[in-house]
């Protein structure tokens, strides 16, 4: 990774100046993207290529071809082979978040319940492993183009497993991506290797080892774990490295969620149009998951969907990247921040350039949240809904308050005219992980959140 120069200060007249100074002080902030376009071409630049909704449809179709095989491999899918999460109404959470009337409806997209991987990483991670397995299977004649889901069940045969067993699937991860890739790859018979940073949680390493995944621990942060894994894999033709910072397959796997959410919104009778905007709040690490979903939603639902990324105040790498603009690739360290956060799914110092390029004309904005607030949100969610989420997954709950309550958020709402239709709007907070958090760990999160809430109460 080359050393990058921090971006020069934007002139103080830029609308970004307020966000930049709050970001450097590690204070929660709201930033609206001045480059968002109301009209988009059908294909958008994503790294060295361009992607369209057709690529998202291809990912949806791939999940479909593998559904019967996934149902065979993962009994927890209940025979359906569909890895999806519910869309939950959350009106009871509004008072706890301090909502006043007239701000719209609140829903939770419950990826914290996603089976197999226990987090949003089930989407991208599974997709990339399936795409790699499919390529090998086609090359070796185990399946043929046009085969259906029944034919794909052959990929659990001893013949297929011995083919896959010759290959290694490797990934660098803070935890959740490793869980997803490791579990999916080893279930298909691949050798699975997960490079983890020092800050990865012990229970995640243990869960992987129990499934026969080799865990390699690296001193230093997430970025170093990825770089080490990438270097080891480049030297080996039988190794497929899942590159969180550069992978289109991951991103497209995430984007497939847009089709499912569209169906859920329709089933719930939720319109998305000029009078009924949809605000979606997505926790952001390197940016691949939220960018894939935002891309899919924007292409599928049109300009009245507004996606906001939520990041910890010490790890706002995506906001840093959006403020720097194209050409630069600064890290949060360059802004004097530490990248220290309990939100391990979001503890990333530098954004994916692929995700940043894709989001430039799509993203509506970013917001940041303190760690202490994450734990308080986690408790509010538990008390109001009974749902158990991990700290990373709580980041989006600061979004609606910052959008409707901060000066920068209100200014953006007034400037876009959205303030006039707020009452008819829908806010979807994407909760991205939690299913596999061990009870003792979760109890500690709750304790910390309750202590924080009690301190505010006095
Ligand atoms: C990975 C992760 C995210 C963000 O995904 P990125 O692709 O890194 O931006 C959000 N929440 C959780 C729980 C995660 O594990």
Keywords:
single chain, 458 residues, alpha/beta, Rossmann fold, 7-stranded mixed beta sheet, 4-stranded parallel beta sheet, 43% helix, globular, disordered N terminus, binds pyridoxal-5'-phosphate
Describe this structure in words.
The protein has 458 residues and is of the alpha/beta class. It has two domains: 17-61 and 83-118 and 255-457, Rossmann fold (3-Layer(aba) Sandwich); 121-250, Rossmann fold (3-Layer(aba) Sandwich). The protein has helices spanning 16-24, 53-73, 93-96, 121-139, 149-152, 158-164, 176-188, 202-210, 222-234, 248-255, 257-267, 288-301, 317-324, 353-359, 371-385, 399-405, 407-416, 439-457; strands spanning 30-32, 43-46, 49-52, 87-89, 105-110, 168-173, 191-197, 214-218, 239-242, 278-283, 305-312, 365-369, 426-431. Helix 7 runs parallel beside helix 8, helix 12 packs parallel to helix 14 (353-359) and helix 15 (371-385) packs across helix 18 (439-457). The termini are far apart. Residues 1-13 have low confidence and may be disordered. It binds pyridoxal-5'-phosphate (PLP). Residues 119-121, 176, 283-290, 345-346, 348, 390, 392-393, 432-433 line the site of pyridoxal-5'-phosphate.
Number of strands: 13
Overall geometry: globular
Radius of gyration: 21 Å
Distance between the termini: 48 Å
| Mean pLDDT level | 93
Q: What is the CATH architecture assignment of the largest domain?
A: 3-Layer(aba) Sandwich
Q: Enumerate the distinct ligands.
A: pyridoxal-5'-phosphate
Largest sheet: 7 strands, mixed
Q: What top-tier CATH class of the largest domain fits best? A: Alpha Beta
Under CATH, the topology of the largest domain can be stated as Rossmann fold
Which strand order do you get reading across the main beta sheet? Answer: 1-12-11-10-13-5-4
Strand content: 5-15%
């Amino acid at each position: 990774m080359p050393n990058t120069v921090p971006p020069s200060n934007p002139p103080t007249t830029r609308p970004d100046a307020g966000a930049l100074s709050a970001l450097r002080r590690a204070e929660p902030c709201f930033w609206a993207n001045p480059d968002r376009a109301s009209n988009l071409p059908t294909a958008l630049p994503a790294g060295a290529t361009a992607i369209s909704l057709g690529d998202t449809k291809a990912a949806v179709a791939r999940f479909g071809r593998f559904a019967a095989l996934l149902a065979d491999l993962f009994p927890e899918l209940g025979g359906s082979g569909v890895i999806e999460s519910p869309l939950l109404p959350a009106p009871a959470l509004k008072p706890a978040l301090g909502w006043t009337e007239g701000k719209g409806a609140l829903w939770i997209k419950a990826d914290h319940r996603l089976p197999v991987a226990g987090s949003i990483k089930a989407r991208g991670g599974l997709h990339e492993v399936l795409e790699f397995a499919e390529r090998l299977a086609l090359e070796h004649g185990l399946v043929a183009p046009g085969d259906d889901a029944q034919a794909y069940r052959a990929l659990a045969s001893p013949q297929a497993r011995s083919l896959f067993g010759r290959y290694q699937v490797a990934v660098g991860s803070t935890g959740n991506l490793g869980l997803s890739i490791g579990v999916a790859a080893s279930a298909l018979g691949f050798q699975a290797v997960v490079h983890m940073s020092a800050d990865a949680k012990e229970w995640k390493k243990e869960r992987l080892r129990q499934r026969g995944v080799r865990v390699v621990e690296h001193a230093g942060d997430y970025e170093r774990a990825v770089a080490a894994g990438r270097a080891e894999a480049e030297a080996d033709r039988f190794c497929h490295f899942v590159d969180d910072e550069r992978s289109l397959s991951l991103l497209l796997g995430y984007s497939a969620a847009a089709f499912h959410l569209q169906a859920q919104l329709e089933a719930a009778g939720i319109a998305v149009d000029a009078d009924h905007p949809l605000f979606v709040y997505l926790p952001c690490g390197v940016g691949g998951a939220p960018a894939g979903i935002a891309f899919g939603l924007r292409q599928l639902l049109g300009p009245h969907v507004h996606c906001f990324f939520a990041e910890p105040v010490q790890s706002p790498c995506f906001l840093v990247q959006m403020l720097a603009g194209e050409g630069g690739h600064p890290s949060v360290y360059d802004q004097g921040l530490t990248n220290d956060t309990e939100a391990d799914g979001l503890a990333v110092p530098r954004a994916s350039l692929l995700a940043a390029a894709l989001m430039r004309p799509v993203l509506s904005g970013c917001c940041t949240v303190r760690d202490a607030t994450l734990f308080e949100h986690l408790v509010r969610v538990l008390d109001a809904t009974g749902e158990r989420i991990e700290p990373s997954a709580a980041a989006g709950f600061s979004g609606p308050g910052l959008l409707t309550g901060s000066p920068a958020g209100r200014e953006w709402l007034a400037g876009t005219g959205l303030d006039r239709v707020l009452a008819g709007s829908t806010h979807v907070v994407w909760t991205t992980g939690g299913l596999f958090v061990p009870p003792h760990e979760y109890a500690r999160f709750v304790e910390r959140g309750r202590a924080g809430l009690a301190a505010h109460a006095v």
